[in-house]
User: Which sequence fits this backbone?
């Protein structure tokens, strides 16, 4: 079906500087922020320390809650320290050998047996797993992510000052599915394109 038949613009023909475009909101582009809008780089560093002391850990939360963003910032922190670290998406495991860190996004996609085998494989190779997941995988819990209207507003304002929806609109956006910041940013993208 053509763009004309659907009534939609062909991909790549929207406004050239949409602040909600993928390249502006993909994990790691925006600093990791708290509910007041402050950068949390010292907290991210301490979280990495906790994970390394515990021999790994998991970041839990629903889809679109910022798990991957936190994982990207943790990975970046490890690299800045000169640590051997890889970042992959499950079912790939990563790890560069003994003492390395495998940052694995979406580890919940592995079956129980698959995760047990993966964990054994990582342990035998001396690789520290830090994963994102929707379910408990038996690793130490590093952090549980969620999305609040306040955090969504802060991120929207950071991307496009003055563009934040009303409290009622933001509550509606968050209630449209799983409380997903990703869903809110998709809606803001569409809103910007149609303005």
Assistant:
């Amino acid at each position: 079906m053509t763009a004309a038949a659907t009534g939609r613009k062909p991909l790549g023909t929207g406004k050239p500087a949409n602040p909600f475009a993928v390249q502006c909101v993909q994990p790691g582009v925006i600093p990791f922020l708290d509910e007041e809008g402050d950068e949390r780089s010292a907290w991210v560093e301490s979280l990495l320390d906790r994970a390394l002391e515990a021999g790994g850990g998991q970041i839990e939360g629903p889809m679109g809650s910022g798990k991957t963003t936190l994982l990207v910032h943790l990975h970046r922190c490890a690299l800045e320290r000169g640590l051997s670290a890889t970042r992959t998406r499950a079912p790939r495991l990563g790890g560069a050998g003994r003492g390395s860190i495998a940052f694995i996004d979406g580890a919940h996609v592995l079956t129980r047996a698959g995760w047990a085998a993966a964990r054994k494989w990582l342990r035998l190779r001396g690789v520290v797993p830090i994963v994102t997941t929707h379910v408990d995988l038996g690793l130490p819990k590093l952090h549980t992510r969620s999305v609040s209207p306040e955090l969504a507003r802060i991120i929207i304002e950071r991307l496009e000052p003055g563009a934040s929806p009303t409290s009622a609109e933001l509550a509606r956006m968050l209630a449209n599915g799983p409380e997903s910041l990703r869903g809110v940013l998709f809606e803001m993208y569409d809103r910007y394109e149609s303005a």
About this structure: Residues 41-144 form a domain with the Rossmann fold fold (CATH 3.40.50.300).
